[in-house]
Specification:
mainly alpha, two-stranded antiparallel ribbon
Length: 226
């Protein structure tokens, strides 16, 4: 493997790690938006007990936002990782790498351009050996830089400070108010169904014996519980 081939291998590894980082970041962003929007929607419905139109709007807004976030920030980087869709090329990767390694500057981009020139030009117009020598020298100097190390996957840990509080709040609500999520989410999912509001009180039957002879009257005693 030539020095230039090693250099290209490093650039390609950087591109793969670039999309892995975007994929991980997108996954965390999606979870944050998913939990926050779900908590917002069920809280609004739990408090407001809206009609069918508003419940339908909340449902489709929730689905639309989360499907958009999932596709844009998670699915698209996965497709790009496997070379589907619009993906950054090696020149664009070189520009990004130059931001992390000032010593690389434009040398990497120039090396890539020299390689393209070598493949495109006529032997009579340009000295191919001179181009190959320049590419080899530049590649040897640049290959010592660990391009992939410019991207730290661990930096995505900062998104946990947004995700964990929302998750813990959801758990606490589920413990303190058992029907908080179940009742609200059921009404939102079945948005075109009419739900009667719960009675503000309940009855406790006080009668011990409910058996009577035919034709007799029965007095029902109940206790009203607010």
């Amino acid at each position: 493997m030539s020095q230039y081939e090693r250099l290209i291998t490093q650039v390609d590894a950087f591109i793969r790690k670039y999309y892995k980082n975007r994929m991980l970041k997108g996954c965390l962003i999606f979870l944050i938006v998913l939990l926050f929007s779900f908590l917002t929607v069920v809280t609004l419905e739990y408090i407001g007990r809206f009609g069918s139109f508003v419940r339908g709007f909340l449902l489709f807004a929730f689905l639309g936002i989360n499907i958009f976030i999932l596709f844009k920030y998670f699915i698209t980087p996965i497709l790009n990782l496997f070379a589907f869709g619009q993906r950054i090329d090696r020149k664009q990767a070189a520009a990004i790498i130059g931001c992390f390694f000032p010593d690389v500057n434009d040398k990497l981009l120039n090396t890539l351009e020299l390689s393209e020139m070598k493949e495109a030009v006529d032997n009579e117009q340009v000295n191919i050996e001179l181009l190959e020598a320049s590419i080899a020298v530049n590649s040897e100097k640049l290959s010592v830089f660990p391009f992939s190390s410019a991207i730290e996957l661990r930096e995505n840990v900062r998104y946990l400070k947004y995700l964990l509080p929302i998750f813990l709040l959801s758990v606490l609500l589920a413990i303190w108010i058992p029907d908080f999520f179940s009742s609200s989410s059921q009404r939102i999912i079945q948005y075109n169904r009419t739900f009667a509001p719960p009675a503000p009180f309940s009855f406790e039957l006080l009668n011990q014996n409910l058996k009577i002879e035919e034709g007799e009257r029965l007095e029902i005693k109940v206790n009203l519980i607010p």
